[in-house]
Amino acid sequence: MSESSVPLAAKWPFLLGDLCLLGAAAGVAWLAHLGRIDWSLGLAALLTVAVAVGAWILVTPFLRDQEAALRLQEQENLADTLRQVQQLEKAASSIASGTAQLQSGQQSLDRAQTAAAALAQQLTTDRKTFVEAQQRTHDQERQNLRLEVDKLRRSEEECMRVVCHLLDHNFAVYQAGLRSPQPGVAHQLSQYRAACLDAVRRLGIVAHEANPGEPFNPEFHQTLDGQPAPAASLIQSTLACGYSIRGTPVRPIIVALQPASDTLPDESPATLTDTPQSTLPPSDPVLGARLETPGDDATRDLDESRGVSDEHLRGDL
User: Fold this and answer.
1) Residue 57 within any structural domain of the chain
2) Same domain, yes or no: 193 and 279
3) Same domain, 57 and 182
4) Whether residues 307 and 172 fall in one domain
């Protein structure tokens, strides 16, 4: 509601008229008191009327100001009511327009829901087709990988078998060189075998030999025919090395046992070694002690080691 000032009436004429009436009434009353005028009922009524008229004259401007303020307030209230009616008309028009837009939006929403449902159905079908195709692809790739792994494993086993087979021949040649009457040949074969063992060790293949006189241990040793060895048997020589691949034993050491009459029960056992120097004579830092065996035994040991390696590598690797 807007505020506006109410024009106020001048009050001094009313105050002046009130003072005149009151002064006249007071003068008449004073004269009557002095006895110059006799008191009578008419005089008292006149004085009362004069006082009442003076009071009415005094409050008249205030009543008019109040009436003007009330009329102004009514006009302002009426103007506010008119503005509110106009706003309601605008709101009604907006509501009608919004209702039409809502109906149009509802129709668009229904069409969008229908399209979304169709799209969801299509996506579900496409997802199912994609998952099935992906699963088939994964199964095919898994099968291919399994075949490749099997091929690699078989190839690795074949390579390990070939390497161990070559190491068996290398060991047989090395043993034959030890029995050769020429020390230079034995020295060169020892260095050649050490280089070969160092090369295959990088692949995880370690060759183990048994020391002569070492007690037979079925966990690490095996006889040539695979039969159990008698109790307290001692090893005479190594026929074929044992092998471990990446720390996993794959073949025991094939050994020849000493005859029962040569068994020494008080001899201290020796440990396994993965270097050829364990069977070499101690007289030479490279070769070790020379075995007291005729030279013709070299060819025989080579053939035995060859046969042992071919027989055991087929089953152990």
Assistant:
1) yes
2) yes
3) no
4) yes
Q: Do both 166 and 280 map to the same domain? A: yes
Both 163 and 264 in one domain: the answer is yes
Shared domain for 203 and 79, answered yes or no, is no
Distance separating alpha carbons of residues 191 and 185, to the nearest angstrom: 10
**pLDDT digit string (tens) for the chain, length 317 residues:** 445 565 666 777 777 777 777 777 777 777 777 767 766 777 777 777 777 777 777 777 777 777 878 888 888 888 888 888 888 888 888 898 888 888 888 899 899 999 999 999 999 999 999 999 999 999 999 999 999 999 998 988 888 888 888 888 888 888 888 888 887 888 888 898 899 999 988 888 899 988 888 898 888 888 888 888 888 888 888 888 899 988 888 889 999 888 876 544 444 333 333 333 333 333 333 223 222 333 344 344 444 444 444 444 444 44
Tell how strand 221-223 and strand 253-257 pair up. Answer: parallel
Burial of 312 (0-12, 13-18, 19+ CB in 10 A): buried
Q: Are residues 297 and 193 in the same domain?
A: yes
Alpha helix (H) ranges present in the chain? 12-34, 41-178, 183-201, 297-316
Question: Does residue 185 lie within any of the structural domains?
Answer: yes
> Same structural domain for residues 245 and 173?
yes
Print the domain residue range for 164. Answer: 157-316
Dihedrals phi, psi of 291, to nearest 5 degrees? -75, 135
Residue whose entry in the numeric block shows the structure tokens 């070694």:
273
Q: How many residues does the chain have?
A: 317
Are the CB atoms for 11 and 60 separated by under 8 Å?
Answer: no
Centre a 10 Å sphere on the Cβ of residue 169 and count the other Cβ atoms it contains: 14
